[in-house]
Amino acid sequence: LPRSLRILRGTMKGDTAEALGQVAAALLQLEAAFENCSKGKRFFGGDNVGYLDIILGSFIGWIQASEKILNIKLLDEAKVPLLVAWADRFCAHDAVKEVMPEVDKLIEFGKLLQALLNANQAH
User: Fold this and answer.
1) Which CATH number fits domain 2-122: 3.30.1330.10, 1.10.10.60, 1.10.8.60, 1.20.1050.10?
2) Ranges for the GST C-terminal domain (predicted)?
3) Which residues of 11-43 are buried (b: 16+ CB within 10 A; e: fewer)?
4) Which of 37, 53, 78, 118 has the most other CB atoms within 10 Å of its CB?
């Protein structure tokens, strides 16, 4: 998933269509995993945010940045409704909402990183 997201954001070379397919497939697997793990509760581990929520939640901002850059919807309610609802709950949680990075700032950061990588490769 991380490699595919970097390709989609344009910070890594690769086949965009293939990366998009990989992200879509990974999100479908996460949808099934959420349904299985949560057993109808709000988060992967139950009623409260747990380690798995934090690990997977760290990708939400980058997924949203990729959506904005490419003008596409990866977290699509029609395809992964449980995952979309989980992401909304996770981002709104008191322990998360103050530390979740803004999408535009992530995009700026990604562009800065890419510029630094390009400069290092040129030398």
Assistant:
1) 1.20.1050.10
2) 1-113
3) beeeeeeebbebbbeebeebbeebeebbeeebb
4) 53
Rounded (10°) CA dihedral 77, 55, 72, 104: 120
Whether the predicted pLDDT of 7 surpasses 80: no
Q: What pTM, to 2 d.p., does this model score?
A: 0.84
Over the range 61-100, which residues count as b (16 or more CB within 10 Å of their CB) and which as e?
A: bbbbbbbebeeeebbeeeebebbbebbeebeebeebeeeb
Q: What is the pLDDT of residues 24-78, one digit of tens each?
A: 899 999 999 999 999 999 999 899 999 999 999 999 998 999 899 888 899 999 9
CB 44 within 8 A of CB 50: yes
For 107, the token pair is: 């995009």
